[in-house]
Amino acid sequence: MNRLVTVARAAGFCSGLAIILLSLVPGPDRPHTGLPGEAEHFAAYCLTGLAFAPAVRPLAFRIALVVGLTLLAGAMEVLQHFVPGRHPAAADAIASSLGALTGIALGGLLFGLAALAYHKHRRFSETPGPVR
User: What is the spatial distance between Cα 130 and Cα 108, in angstroms, rounded to a whole number?
Assistant: First the structure.
């Protein structure tokens, strides 16, 4: 379990770093997926939330992570004001925040279901069979 937490933290931090770097690249140099801007923001933050989800267990930490990613989204939009070819947009920050919330919630749900299934399987396989 510790290995999963370590990998999740590393993936989350790498995703967050990618968001920061790609948010501050000048407009003409930024790679595009072909999706609308809000969809790109939602997907990037959703994937970051999914990556972090197994590393944050208590609900309070998940809420703190959503708040942190929301603050990051706002900060990146403000900083884009100073980047050539970029412009801040409230809709992008909102899409990013909703993506973070969705990713963390979905990741927490999937991780919880996987842990429940693992424990059920483990308990089932350890019960003794019929005595012969």
Answer: 37
Query: Distance (Å, rounded) from C-alpha 60 to C-alpha 97?
Result: 17
Q: Give the span between the Cα atoms of 88 and 77, in whole angstroms.
A: 5
Q: What count of residues does the chain have?
A: 132
**CA–CA distance, 102 with 96 (Å, rounded to integer):** 10
Span 33-65, pLDDT tens digits: 889 989 999 999 999 999 998 888 888 999 999
Task: Extract the tokens encoding 104.
Answer: 């963390």
* Cα–Cα distance measured from residue 19 to residue 44, given in angstroms and rounded to the nearest whole number: 7
- Cβ–Cβ under 8 Å, residues 4 and 54: yes
The two tokens of residue 113 are: 């279901």
